[in-house]
Amino acid sequence: xxxxxxxxxxxxxxxxAILQVTYKVYSIIDSLAPERVTxxxxxxxxxxxxxxxxxxxxxxxxxxxxxxxxxxxxxxxxVQMQRMQTQGGPIGSGxxxxxxxxxPSGRITVTDRVMMDAYSYTESLNEISWQILPxxxxxxxxTCQKAVTTFRGRDYEAWxxxxxxxxxxxxxxxxxxxxxxxxxxNRQHYLxxxxxxxxxPGLIEYADxxxxxxxxxxxxxIKRKFYEDPVGAMEGMRASAPAGANIMMVARNADGTTTxxxxxxxxxxxxxxxxxxxxx
Length: 280
Hints:
The protein contains four helices and 16 strands. The protein is of the alpha+beta class. It has one domain (6-268): Clam (outer membrane lipoprotein receptor (LolB), chain A), CATH 2.50.20. Helix 2 crosses helix 3.
């Protein structure tokens, strides 16, 4: 297990938030199953020193679950990881990506997790070239203007408001003369829509973990491999676990039944086409 000690160190305080924006995020992470739309609430903290942080709002719960799992493994106890089969309602994407803009200055820092490993990489902040169009719309009572761009394999349509003059938006999107309140790619595989804004003072924190340093494309390869063969990743985790730890993968079906049979789980996960937001 590598890069998994984020919960054991106090976080770094990198800025003070002056605005918190919540987005409802819809995504299709399996292009062969477009009817399976995942739904997440994601938060954008905007700091007074132009630093921002974008993350899924379940990150605290997930951190607690990871810490409990790590304690169980260290003690040689049983660890059970489940793949949930759900029907009839929205499910979360499980996205653990956190995007920090202007941290360090003029850069983007991205942290992520694959299984028990924590990764990070940095890249340039200003890589998106926008075309502002005359079209207007109203979102959350704000007059918004349309902008379009092509970014890493996808064409996007964004709506931003001059009335909120911050050069920000969800995920890696930024660079417009107003806050982006809605943005989606032209295939509707990824949609971010603002649902609330609050002036909530707070700290923007960066987890001080022993991250495995990587780059965007190498991490994408790691995530693709995990997505396309999670059972293989689980078997690799078993091989590197502390002596005595028992790691089980359980598939839970919509009718409540479960199975731990590897062949059944692998069969349930076959024929998935990974559909990341960045295609190149």
